[in-house]
Amino acid sequence: DIQMTQSPSTLSASVGDRVTITCRASQSISSWLAWFQQIPGKAPKLLIYKASSLESGVPSRFSGSGSGTEFTLTISSLQPDDFATYYCQQYTGYPLTFGGGTKVEIK
Amino acid sequence: EVQLVESGGGLVQPGGSLRLSCAASGFTLSDHYMDWVRQAPVKGLEWVARSRNKPNSYTTEYAASVKGRFTISRDDSKNSLFLQMNSLETEDTAVYYCVRSDSSGYVRYWGQGTLVTVSS
Q1: Which end of chain B is less packed: N or C, by CB atoms within 10 Å?
Q2: Which of B34, B36, B45 to substitute to test the interface with A, most A CBs within 10 Å?
Q3: Is the CB of residue B52 less than 8 Å away from at least one CB of chain A?
Q4: Model pLDDT for residues A35-67, shown as the tens digit of each residue
Q5: Are the CB atoms for A30 and A67 separated by under 8 Å?
């Protein structure tokens, strides 16, 4: 199985901060990576697919980069709605696997 | 608008069975890959099972943790996806999400989830 490791597990930041979350794969997954946002009590929401493609309707302050085994999700200017948990997912093979999540908290 | 509405969750004893349903609307079910993804309380996300679309003969995939116990199926005429869960274990306790995936593999749309609790 491909293991997905996210860092940090928790991040404290303020409104307006630039935030970067890292996701590492245990083997190369090319660009077959997606990012999701989950607000407590809600279902996850797709933000980014194919490592850097922005899902329709997602604000442009979200961006993704990387390929192979190392990927990043960047929020250019953190907004109040962005305090949530973020997950990466690889989809190069089965089983599909998710990272453990990064919780973005208010500083 | 894509909508996915799960039902069928509840409390079941270890060793018991439960069948989850997902009512899909806003798209043609047979055109799309459909999955179940679960999330144990205060835990991360775990992919459970996949049903490929009609062009891919509705073939299925399962996570090792559920293979042989869970069965994913669909009824395209009723726009419904199902998850038959047998021999349930306490570790199966989770919110189960019905999801529609892109044919390249990523999860695109999520239902609101249904809670399954396995406990004596």
Answers
A1: N
A2: B45
A3: no
A4: 999 999 999 999 999 999 999 999 999 999 999
A5: yes
